[in-house]
Specification:
This protein has 17 helices and twelve strands. It is α/β, with parallel strands linked by helices. The strands form three sheets. It has an eight-stranded parallel beta barrel with strand order 1-2-3-4-5-7-9-10, surrounded by four helices. Strand 9, helix 16 (399-417) and strand 10 (423-429) form a beta-alpha-beta unit. Helix 4 (78-92) runs parallel beside helix 6, helix 11 (211-236) packs across helix 14 and helix 15 (359-373) packs parallel to helix 16. The protein starts with 11 loop residues before the first strand and ends in a 6-residue tail after the last helix. It binds 6-O-phosphono-beta-D-galactopyranose. 6-O-phosphono-beta-D-galactopyranose is lined by residues 18, 21, 188-189, 247, 319, 338, 381, 385, 429, 436-439, 444.
């Protein structure tokens, strides 16, 4: 009992992905459009436009636009390559594959009563293929891909009707895949609901004074929906587990000036908010005070709060790419990051996209989250985005990625073996190259498997194994001993 913890023999070494970033086939077999299909590609100098919140007028125009570049409509064409891709993942030895179901492939508008059978069939094939190789499927129910109709006709997640639609979708997949899927998670990086409301909650941007209220209501509705479907999952399949998924933003104070410490404390509380609600079942007081101060009034009932309280998650999953720094000095420049950035950390190097590289931050984050909630954790995303070069003899020498992963996995091992954190697995983003969530680039690559497409969809679509593929294969085979 007092010995050193080791990585469990069932530790879930794996990879993570999202339907909208890899499938393509956006209009095949009855699939409806999703919000991901209206994100356009922008060249580097205009990249900030990729992050712009879209108004309803802009969304409708983009929906009809067939001539511009919408990479998420193409993905990496997993839709036609899934057998080959899963065979490669099996060859690499992964034990778990996190993917999402595209809601609009199963319910094209999102508000139907009956599912699109062809959509379910597509996922049947994938899940069966994974199980054939004994790869554990881990399913995200909503990964930045709400059906577009929910945004254009219902105003997004701030509309309580959407909760019912989501319940129908979840009920359908829970019953259909019962016994085949053990691990579920409700909303990917649920912080997106407040940080990037259109991607997170399908709420079109507006100048309306109620916009802010809608955004917070959208988050509340997702919390409630998550609790409702957790309850439903337990009714349908007692052995299945539901997790939440948050983007971790461990934030350091820029100095020991109490003003910086206070700023960092609040930044951390802001990202804990999501697990505070989904794991503890309560809204923290600081958040409620904040709403009050801003005159934001949520539409909720006592009965709903009880549902949230009584249907908390079984495990906490989070993405970890970077740590942030908070300073009270408004003159300090805020840099790039996943969903959001912080001020520069002089002790850390950055990726070409300006994301601070901080392996020790992973150990800190694992400790903070595990000991705050006392629930098993799952690293549901971590990885290194780079513009890999395919050599003339079809090799990809990505030693920078191997270095990044080595360092992070070493810290993960310390968190488990030395600090006693209970961690179910490590799912790196993404085992195969796919479209970037933030910038819709293909050339921001994370994979162990290279996909020969560029930002414009030119290329053969062929898959090539990177040096990191063989490295991860050994890491998995040795259960993390050989890194
Ligand atoms: C997270 C998302 C993923 C993923 C990753 C990397 O925010 O959950 O979907 O893509 O970040 O981000 P990006 O693709 O923008 O580099």
């Amino acid at each position: 009992m007092f010995g050193v913890c080791e990585l469990d023999k069932d530790f879930l070494w794996g990879g993570a992905s999202a339907a909208n970033q890899m499938e393509g086939g956006y209009d095949l077999d009855g699939r409806g459009m999703s919000i991901a299909d209206v994100f356009m590609f922008y060249e580097k100098k205009e990249r900030h436009l990729a992050k712009k919140e879209l108004t309803i007028e802009e969304i409708k125009k983009l929906r009809e636009n067939k001539s511009n570049n919408f990479p998420k409509r193409r993905g990496n064409d997993f839709y036609h390559h899934y057998q080959e891709d899963i065979a490669l993942l099996a060859k690499m030895g992964i034990k778990a594959f996190r993917m999402s179901f595209s809601w609009s492939r199963i319910f094209p508008r999102g508000d139907e009563k009956e599912p699109n059978k062809a959509g379910l069939k597509f996922y049947d094939n994938i899940i069966n293929e994974l199980l054939k190789y004994k790869i554990e499927p881990i399913i995200t129910l909503s990964h930045f891909e709400t059906p577009l109709v929910i945004a254009t006709e219902y105003g997004g997640w701030c509309n309580k009707e959407v909760i019912k639609f989501f319940q129908t979708y979840c009920y359908t997949v829970f019953t259909h895949f019962k016994g085949r899927i053990k691990y579920w998670m409700s909303f990917n990086e649920i912080n997106a609901a407040l940080e990037i409301p259109f991607k997170g909650s399908a709420i079109p941007f507006s100048q309306d004074r109620l916009y802010e209220t809608q955004v917070h209501q959208g988050l509340y509705n997702q919390f409630l929906a998550s609790a409702l479907v957790t309850r439903e999952l337990k009714r349908i399949d007692k052995t299945a587990k539901m997790g939440c998924m948050i983007a971790s933003f461990t934030t350091y104070p820029a100095s020991c000036d109490p003003d910086d410490i206070l700023k960092a404390m609040r930044a951390n509380q802001e990202y804990y908010l999501y697990a505070d609600v989904q794991a503890n079942g309560n809204y923290p007081n600081w958040y409620l005070k904040n709403l009050e101060k801003r005159d934001i009034h949520l539409n909720f009932s006592k009965e709903e709060l009880d549902i949230i309280k009584n249907n908390t998650v079984d495990y906490i999953s989070f993405s970890y790419y970077l740590s942030l720094v908070a300073s009270h000095d408004p003159a300090r420049k805020v840099g790039e990051g996943n969903l959001k950035g912080g001020v520069e950390n002089p002790y850390l190097e950055k990726s070409d996209w300006g994301w601070a590289i901080d392996p020790i931050g992973l150990r800190i984050t694992m400790n903070e989250i595990y000991y705050r909630y006392n629930l098993p954790i799952l690293i549901s995303e971590n990885g290194f985005g780079a513009n890999d070069i395919l050599t003339v003899d079809n090799q990809i020498h990505d030693e920078y990625r191997i270095k990044y992963l080595q360092k992070h996995i070493n810290e993960l091992k310390k968190a488990i073996e030395l600090d006693g954190v209970i961690c179910l697995g490590y799912l790196s983003w993404s085992p195969i190259d796919m479209i970037s969530a933030g910038t819709s680039e293909m050339n921001k690559r994370y994979g162990y498997i290279y996909v020969d497409y560029d930002d414009y969809g030119n290329g053969s679509g062929k898959r090539y194994l990177k040096d990191s593929f063989y490295w991860y294969q050994k890491a998995i085979a040795s259960n993390g001993k050989v890194l």
